[in-house]
Design a protein that fits this description.
By secondary structure, this protein is an all-beta fold. The chain has strands spanning 2-3, 7-10, 13-16, 19-21, 25-28, 31-34, 37-39, 42-45, 48-53, 61-62, 67-70, 80-87, 89-90, 96-102. The chain has two domains: 2-44, no CATH class; 47-102, no CATH class.
């Protein structure tokens, strides 16, 4: 089920198959997906969002608990798996992120 643009929905969502959103996906309620969820930008769950980026955010406004996963993770001792917003606000002001998930050495 491809969808272009933002999707905002309130209530329960049940999907059998694939859902691809070419914008932002925001659902208030339960989401049950039996298949694949693809989203080009970000996913919002309740009031928190999940994003993917190559670096910790330096612009924009974020809420405490928002998560940004590192989409350029490599196995090393210095790469973070992502960052979580610890202080809500604009990144040019009070907004702050903390790293999580040291990728370390590969487990074989």
């Amino acid at each position: 089920m491809p969808w272009k643009g933002d999707v905002v929905y309130q209530g329960a969502v049940d999907i059998t198959g694939n859902l691809t959103v070419g914008g932002n996906l925001s659902v208030t309620g339960n989401v049950d997906i039996d298949g694949t969820l693809g989203c080009d930008d970000k996913i919002t769950i309740d009031s928190n969002r999940i994003e993917f980026a190559a670096a910790v955010p330096t612009v924009g406004t974020y809420s405490q608990g928002d998560v940004v996963f590192n989409n350029t993770v490599v196995v090393s001792t210095t790469t973070d798996a992502g960052w979580i917003c610890t202080t809500a606000g604009d990144m040019a002001g009070v907004g702050r992120f903390a790293p999580f998930g040291d990728t370390g050495a590969a487990i074989t």
